[in-house]
Amino acid sequence: MSRHRNIRTKNYDDYDDVDEYGKSYNDEEIGVSPGTVSQFMYRRDDPGKSVQRQPTLPEEDPVEDDLMMDDIEERADETSAVVDLDRMKLCIDYIENCSGDAFTREQVKRAVLAASYNAERALQLLLDHQGNLPVVSVTAKAPVPFLAKKLESLSVTGNAASTSRPDGGVGSSEPERKSQKISDVGVIRKVATFEDPTISTRDVVKKLKLPSVELPDWALSFVQEANQQYGAMAKTLQATHTGVGVNPPSAASFAVSGGDKRAFPRPESTPNLRLLDPGRSQPGTPTPGSPKGTRRGASKPFSSRATSRADESQGDTATLSTSKTPEVPSRSLIKITALYEQRQSSSKPLINLIVIGHVDAGKSTLMGHLLYKLGRVDAKQMAKFEHEANKIGKSSFKYAWVLDETGEERSRGITIDVAQTSFETTNKCINLMDAPGHKDFIPNMITGTAQADVAVLVVDATRGEFETGFQSGGQTREHTLLARSLGVAQLVVAVNKMDTVNWSQERFDQIVQMLAPFFKAVGFKDADVDFVPCSGFTGDNLTESPRTVEAAHWWTGPTLVERIDQFRPPVRQIDKPFRQIITDVFKSQAGGFFGGGKN
Ligand SMILES: Nc1nc2c(ncn2[C@@H]2O[C@H](COP(=O)(O)OP(=O)(O)OP(=O)(O)O)[C@@H](O)[C@H]2O)c(=O)[nH]1
Q1: E strands along 510-587, which residues?
Q2: Which is it for strands 213-215 and 419-424: parallel, antiparallel or unpaired?
Q3: On the chain, which terminus has fewer CB atoms closer than 10 Å, C or N?
Q4: What is the 3-state secondary structure (H, E, C) of 234-297?
Q5: Where is this region: Disordered (predicted)?
Q6: What is the per-residue pLDDT for 118?
Q7: 3-state secondary structure of 135
Q8: What local confidence, expressed as pLDDT, does residue 582 receive?
């Protein structure tokens, strides 16, 4: 890992006086190579070396921002609609910044909607289509259920005398308006912001806080039209997807009375929605997600989600799909699930294991010896390590050298970077990571732990040493907390260096009693934590029961490797959208960057 290599080449003696948590060294000096600095870092004093920046999105009026934030905090459950409006504004500003007045506001809005509020994509769409994008209805997004529910109870009375539709459109009649219910607040906000620049989002939000709100005629008429469209869409969806498991929005939730339908797709637009069936692809139509599909869909920006024969005949009218998630898995998902299950059953389950603990608790020695005993390191190699360790007067570190590979780590006798290897137990395939225990390398420890499913916490049983690691601000406590926060739910505590306390059962019990309440407090379940006494140096209770006489009479539990074998494999949520924690970034020789981490 390039970043780690850079850390390794540093002389940490220079930073001994720096003792601030999480910042034990200067980021500018360590962790970023000079090449990376010159290529990517912004230098205020040297504009020539600053990175090429895209035109930035304009900053919002701070007062407006504050007010909006208040509103958002107070009505956290309505934020999505507000955020859409803000994103639209930002996108428009961004595009107009880049393209000047090459496109009309209407064209820009269409592009932003088609690109799902991705300003760069919208700009690209505009350029590709020279502004001639099909009309996209802003109401195509599924209504936010909680907003609809909330607003169904709000009677909206229009005020024809005070406000009128700016485009001169004719609103609903007074009695119609009185009986009208709003089912989608998102629609109102969009209308308010995009059609009439004098009404801000904040005004609408404020209005919506009142028990009854007054909206301009044109807004009411728009809501009415939108609801009709939703009603039609919902019915169409129900008709189209009966039997394929798609749950369309309920028609009832959009139902309103009367109104002009001319601005919205006719019910004949049923074929538009066929492609929503994830398992059925149309001839000549891109399969959602496939690279081919994306390419073919280029001439129609949103064809991968909803394109149609009707689109082709109507030319400039397209209807976006609702964002409902199918309840049945798609064919490709079934395939992946089957593949995954097949792989799981044909090989041992893979578990990512991290070894954590206070500095010098014996993590590397324990794991190095375990690997040796499991045959992952041959006798010849071990003899070489022993010989070389003897030469520099560090013979006790011979097993640690299996994992501590760099000159710096070996000469200093500490682990700096996370070492990674693998071994197999009877039923599991273990991906082993040995974390550094020194507090200066907590960032490296976090990088490794973020990728782990389970952990072995090594504590030193030696009197005084355990107390230093656990009670006096040591890393036994800190590593455990970090591991739990990073999603590690199963833990084995290796009570190491039992040879130094003559395999005293009393000492082992004392350590268990001190640690157990702490694990509970940080969120580990009792059943997910276990204690195993061992000695990394003598190899007792690693792969075989301890041979030491003092241990043999009281320890009847599993060996360390047996206990590791009992870890439950994590449940990988392969049927959920892909999500990954990026914990490391690699620069490829061939160009481009790669992110690494647990998904
Ligand atoms: N007596 C005894 N000494 C041990 C045992 N395990 C490790 N040691 C010694 O403890 C010292 C530190 O061991 P390491 O394996 O480097 O400890 P570590 O936890 O990996 O250290 P860092 O990775 O730097 O945090 C070495 O001198 C080991 O020989 C053990 O079971 N018994």
Answers
A1: 529-533, 584-587
A2: unpaired
A3: C
A4: HHHHHHHHCCCCCCCCCHHHHCCCCCCCCCCCCHHHHHHHHHHCCCCCCCCCCCCCCHHHHHHH
A5: 1-62, 157-182, 253-327
A6: 86
A7: strand
A8: 79
The CATH-assigned architecture of domain 347-572 is: 3-Layer(aba) Sandwich (3.40)
Per-residue pLDDT of 340-373, as tens digits, reads: 777 777 788 899 999 999 999 999 999 999 999 9
Query: What is the whole-number distance in angstroms between the Cα of residue 550 and the centre of ligand 1?
Result: 21
Residue 321 pLDDT > 80, yes or no?
Answer: no
**pLDDT confidence of 134, banded at 50, 70, 90?**
low
Atom of ligand 1 nearest to the CA of 496: 31
Task: Let me know: does 363 contact 372? Beta carbons within 8 Å.
Answer: no
Q: How far apart are CA 197 and CA 40, in angstroms?
A: 40
Residue 115 Cα to ligand 1 midpoint, Å, equals 56
Amino acid letter, 250: S
Q: Which of 355, 386, 396 to mutate to test ligand 1, by most ligand atoms within 8 A of the CB atom?
A: 396
d(Cα 220, Cα 225) in Å, to the nearest integer? 9
- Mark out the alpha helices in 278-406 (DSSP H runs): 291-296, 309-314, 331-346, 363-373, 379-391
Compute CA 328 distance to the chain's CA centroid, rounded to the nearest angstrom: 24
CATH class for the region spanning 82-129: mainly alpha
Name which residue leads in pLDDT, 498 or 596: 498
Return residue ranges of the chain for CATH 3.40.50.300: 347-572
Taking the alpha carbons at both ends of the chain, their separation in whole angstroms is 19
Could you list the beta-strand ranges (E) of 63-186: 135-136, 156-158
Mapped onto helix, strand or coil, the DSSP state of residue 595 is strand
Looking at the chain, which residues constitute the CATH 1.10.8 domain(s)? 82-129
